[in-house]
Amino acid sequence: MTSTAERGHRIEQRGSRWFRRPFQIIRANLGAYLALNAMAYGLFLVGMGVGLLRPELTGANTASLQQDGTAEMVTWAMSSTWLFSLTILAVNTVWLSLAHVLLPSAIVPFGGIAVFAYWALYTGVTLAPVNEVTALTMIPHSLTVLIEFQAYVLVLLGAYRLGMSWLRPGTVGARTRRQGYVRGLRQVGWLGLPALALLVVGAIYEAVEIIHLVPLLLP
């Protein structure tokens, strides 16, 4: 009969594994991880630069958000900090991470990485500080970008590992592409744990900064 101490030790080992395994994957793929960081933050900054040079593009992106109902949904969700947090979390996990990065990558190797690259550039253009209001808004919002983009980088790394395991199953010790695909999905799951934690933190902070901090900075 398993003792309470043994059960506790097993739970502790499991928890330690959940914590260590994502970092082991990152360490084993450090070059890809750094390259994806450079791509994600770099394209965002390039987009901001484009927006500063061509402010009419930033205005057009903002107008499109109003026309497709996104701005109206944001205004409705801002009635409550927690509701806004949950809305942000749902958009960042389901709409972007799952639907636009992982799902395309599960069909076409690395497909979601290309989709994210376009999104990062577009987002940079949209958030370009072309006037005093957007410049002041970006002061607290820069931390949101830092946190959430780091979560996206982990998701992108998962998409990269899925593609590599699928195309080159030998890199994960698999004999067939099917086995490689399954093992790649496992790595996606491991990397999804810290990514989800960062997205939760980012969603809470983003809701707080938009509802409570930004109004204090605006004239």
UniProtKB/TrEMBL annotation:
Ranges that cross the membrane: 30-53, 73-94, 101-122, 142-167, 188-208
Organism: Saccharopolyspora endophytica
Keyword vocabulary terms for this entry: Membrane, Transmembrane, Transmembrane helix
Protein name: Stage II sporulation protein M
